[in-house]
Amino acid sequence: MPALGGRTAIVTGGGHGVGRGIALSLAEAGAQLVICGRTPETLSAVRKEVEARGGVALDIVCDITRVADLERLVAATLERFGGINILVNNAAIVPHGTLLEIDDALVQAAWETGPVATLHLMRLCHPHLKGDGAIVNVSSGIAISGNAHRRGIYAATKAALNAISRAAANEWGPDGIRVNTIMPVARTEAVERFFADEPERAEAMLAAIPLGRVGDTEEDIGRAVAFIVSPDARYITGVTIPVDGGSSYIR
């Protein structure tokens, strides 16, 4: 049986980028998949990708800032698959701007789509993850960067996410729930824009990756997550794992 055979996974922001890569890898490892996001077309496309590979997936349009939507997501997952074993919190906006110029509404949205929404969904899934559940929260290396250029609020939300994840690992360990965080570097639409808009900074970032390339969302990031939530990683919890080609430790 595949490593995740018979297990059910929820992936937020599963319609594109890192979320899509994680979703495809979890399905490849045998998980029954529930992907949520705001855009029906992208969610449907990923569901069809999963099904074309022989997997099983359910796509749900969901605004993660609305608790009622998160409750509906959990209820639909339980109705379709009967349980929840894996939760991947990936969805969040990436706010840009210096601390003096960034709009207050964007700051608020960053917190609501990031650590606040993540905490809400973790709480809702907690009763169903008891026993041998696994949570992976998607953070960013910017949370530990010495210079979060024009992304200070983003860094703050990801640092908060790391702290919440560590707290959950400690508090929920006795319930049999593992909680880990990853800091990926992957070729997403946002990274492509970064290379186009800030080529000098982007080239410096690339030069700081010992493996010399930006990661693939499925083969590099997704497969790492599939391992972290698998029984083979059953003794790993409470850690923030850089999945970034080594760049976090080139300083």
Map the helices and strands.
Layout: E1 8-12, H1 17-28, E2 32-37, H2 40-52, E3 57-61, H3 67-81, E4 86-89, H4 104-129, E5 134-138, H5 152-172, E6 178-184, H6 189-197, H7 199-207, H8 217-228, E7 240-243
Helix pairs in contact: 1-8, 3-4, 4-5, 6-7
Pfam families: adh_short_C2 (PF13561)
Family: Belongs to the short-chain dehydrogenases/reductases (SDR) family.
Organism: Sphingobium baderi
Short overview:
The chain has 251 residues and is an alpha/beta fold. It has one domain: 3-Layer(aba) Sandwich (Rossmann fold). It is 47% helix and 14% strand.
Can you describe this structure?
Belongs to the short-chain dehydrogenases/reductases (SDR) family. It comes from Sphingobium baderi. With 251 residues, the chain is α/β, with parallel strands linked by helices. The protein has a single domain, classed as Rossmann fold (3-Layer(aba) Sandwich). The protein is built from 8 helices and 7 strands; from the N terminus they run βαβαβαβαβαβαααβ. It has helices at residues 17-28, 40-52, 67-81, 104-129, 152-172, 189-197, 199-207, 217-228, and strands at residues 8-12, 32-37, 57-61, 86-89, 134-138, 178-184, 240-243. A 7-stranded parallel beta sheet has the order 3-2-1-4-5-6-7, with helices on both faces. α1 (17-28) crosses α8 (217-228), α4 (104-129) runs parallel beside α5 and α6 (189-197) packs across α7 (199-207). The longest helix is centred in the middle third of the chain and has 26 residues, at 104-129. The chain is globular. It starts with 7 loop residues before the first strand and ends in an 8-residue tail after the last strand. 44% of the residues are buried. The model has no long low-confidence stretch (mean pLDDT 94).
